[in-house]
Amino acid sequence: MDLSIFDDVLVLLEEGNMSRAAQRRNITQPAFSRRIQSFEHWLGRPIVKRAANRVDIEPALSENTTELQALAGHIQAFRQRIAGYEPGRSTVTVAAQHSLIVSIFPDFAAGARAEHQGVDFRLRAANHNDCISLFLSGEASLLMCYERDGGAPMPFDDSIVRATWGRDRLVPVVGGPLRFALSPKGVAPPDTPMIRYPPGTFFAEMLAGASTSYSSHTGAIFAESAFTVGIKEIVLMGFALAWLPMSLVYSEVQSGALLVCNGDTETLPLRISLFARPTDSVSMQLCGLRKSVFGT
């Protein structure tokens, strides 16, 4: 059996629709349906109920999604280890948010290389939710992501090991000519344009649930984006105010190219967390690395 069928089934579980799942897998719907039937034949029972215009996923499959994700992940990791086998070396696939890849990962990698000289990295940069999906599906063996410091941890079960690598904070910053519009106390005028994060994204949810001026902002919305690295460049040009991780803008704040608004008092503390599975010894060792950054 073609083991990529496991990925077909996982996509079907995510989409809940044959047509959309087939489109994501870049094959025709009849071909995708045949692959699902092949999986059913291997499994020994149907996993979907087929009707004229819809399919319903059987509870026997949907209630075992986590086990299927783990199985698919183990298979992919096994294939990668065999294909790239080199005695004394290991490749760790890291899923991380874009801002962490730019600001935190280089320092993390330097510490990892100092402790484990035979480790290489494969980076998968994505939004918060997509990073979690990459980790749970087994496409990444190490997850590096933000959590709200002091908030509820992500609801992973006991099969996942978590560690705190360091801390960060989300701060409102302005650049360019907007720096000169701040009050003597560093407060931005109410009509200052702002860049928003799309609804449902991690930073949008964190800011919406906090006592900050983000939710009560009355100025124009210059743009909406979840790409923090691009947002920083827009803010440096002086087009708008934006909330960004301090680790991402630390150098610019130190040089004065960016100014933190509201007297540096309106911030949202974040935790930089690492997640791995106990079965992956190298990723587990990397979870033991610690460094507190930008936490004050």
Automatic annotation (TrEMBL):
The lineage of its organism: Bacteria, Pseudomonadati, Pseudomonadota, Alphaproteobacteria, Rhodobacterales. The keyword Kinase does not apply. SUPFAM superfamilies: Periplasmic binding protein-like II (SSF53850), Winged helix' DNA-binding domain (SSF46785). InterPro entries: LysR_HTH_N, LysR_subst-bd, WH-like_DNA-bd_sf, WH_DNA-bd_sf. Keywords: DNA-binding, Transcription, Transcription regulation. Belongs to the LysR transcriptional regulatory family. One of its GO terms (molecular function) is DNA-binding transcription factor activity. It holds the Pfam family LysR_substrate. Residues 1-58 form the HTH lysR-type domain. Gene3D superfamilies: Periplasmic binding protein-like II, Winged helix-like DNA-binding domain superfamily/Winged helix DNA-binding domain. This is Transcriptional regulator.
